[in-house]
Amino acid sequence: MTRLNQLEKNKYQPNVSAFLALCGRNYALILKWLPDESEHDTLWTIEGEFGSLAVTLLENTKYTQLIEISRCLPHSLFVSSPKVVVRVYHDAQLAEVLTSQQIFSFKPVYDYPNIHMHQADEKFQVNAFLEELLKIGCHSIVPS
Description:
By secondary structure, the chain is an alpha+beta fold. It has three helices and six strands; from the N terminus they run ααβββββαβ. A six-stranded antiparallel β-sheet has the order 5-4-3-2-1-6.
């Protein structure tokens, strides 16, 4: 087997079913506290057992919403607060991360290694991170 054939054989193949299932779980978690009727730029805080999330509604259309979710952390010079922008698709019942930290759009698959050192499955991992972020144990919504 040639080296090129070996590389093709080991190339990462995304699992679309697993990705859609993950986006569906994120949608279900977000739906627990996402208001039906809100104006854009509405800001609220989700208080949970393990911390709080600051949420801003950036866009509200008939079938989708665009929200920014950040985890409130004590001020640190070394660690920035995690922040993601999520598109919530109500018709498909999915929630997908569009941007995260310094990454402004995600490719479905990255070659590895790459100049930015993204993982081959970076898009899946960022959405898995959103799932963990949403599991902080939300109990109450506090309007800001």
